[in-house]
Specification:
The chain contains three helices and six strands; from the N terminus they run βββαβααββ. Helix 1 packs across helix 2 and helix 1 (29-40) crosses helix 3. By secondary structure, the chain is α+β, with helices and mostly antiparallel strands.
């Protein structure tokens, strides 16, 4: 199921971001994995550890990479997707998606 937000959208089955002209946006695979993890848990708090386990595996936790990926996602969604990422200090992140 696609969640169309404004003129751009995210297709979870293809794990792709699409721009308003309908073409996929160039986004690093790790960034897509982080967004997919947030998207699958939309409007719920998900711990940083759970995101890192999902993206990097259990043995490779680089919190700095996660911060960079979250920053990139924020830039992608801030103007076109109508959603935002809320940081709950010391706990994790929540993708806030408006109910349509």
């Amino acid at each position: 199921m696609e969640r169309i937000i404004k003129t751009s959208y995210y297709d979870p089955e293809a794990n792709e971001f699409y721009a308003s002209h309908g073409r996929p946006r160039k986004v690093a695979p790790e960034v897509k994995k982080v967004y997919k993890c947030l998207y699958d848990n939309a409007n719920k708090l998900i711990s940083r550890e759970a995101i890192m386990d999902n993206v990097f595996g259990k043995d490779n936790h680089d919190i700095n990479k996660l911060y960079v990926y979250i920053s990139r996602i924020r830039r992608i969604i801030q103007d076109h997707f109508g959603s935002r990422i809320h940081n709950v200090r010391g706990k994790g992140y929540k993708l806030i998606v408006p109910v349509t």
